[in-house]
Amino acid sequence: MTNIKIQGTIREQVYEILKERILSGYYPGGTHLSEQQICSELNISRSPVREAIRLLEADGLVSGEANKGVAVRIFTEKDVRNMYQVEALVQNGSIHYGFKNLGEQEKEWFRNIREEFIEAYNSKDSARYLQVSTRFHNQIAELSDNELLIHFYRRNGTLCQRFRSISLQDPRRMECSHNEHLQMIEAILSGDQDALSTIMSYHISESLRVTLLAIPKASDIE
Q1: pLDDT at residue 165 above 70?
Q2: What is the value of pTM for the model shown?
């Protein structure tokens, strides 16, 4: 039996636990989510579990079918391509509209996360590296100062996170991804918007390419 230890309401805690398990691949696509089993494991009542599963449905991570309950969503290759296409559009749109919002405070944030990238990469901790990468791309979206775009990106980013983890399982891709992130940060700090857009587009296209190569090995994609 596992007791909840992270902060937030019980519903939020259950949501974060289940989401992390889905995004990490602990729950592969097609896995049935049993409310009773989750309640027993986490030692909680059924209500917050049911509410957490509704949030996961809103994220597009699980789907329900009549008389079958709720299961982790199985993605198609077309789904993956669509996610990365949206990723490219939103990230480059954020750069276009938000680059002017880069002040010294924002640049200091990118200097700090550069050090986090280096530490995560040198430790060969792909899970930590993915967390840093997710924060980096979220911050790019935040630069747009457009709440609708930011909300849309976060939802799509949640879906993409599962596939980013797949691509980073390739050591060569992780090395290239690391170099691309450092180049993007350098472009930000030097004020080179065109270079940032170019590297971002390449970074996303390469992530997609490696992910598609890995798809036959992933049980949650069809």
Answers
A1: yes
A2: 0.82
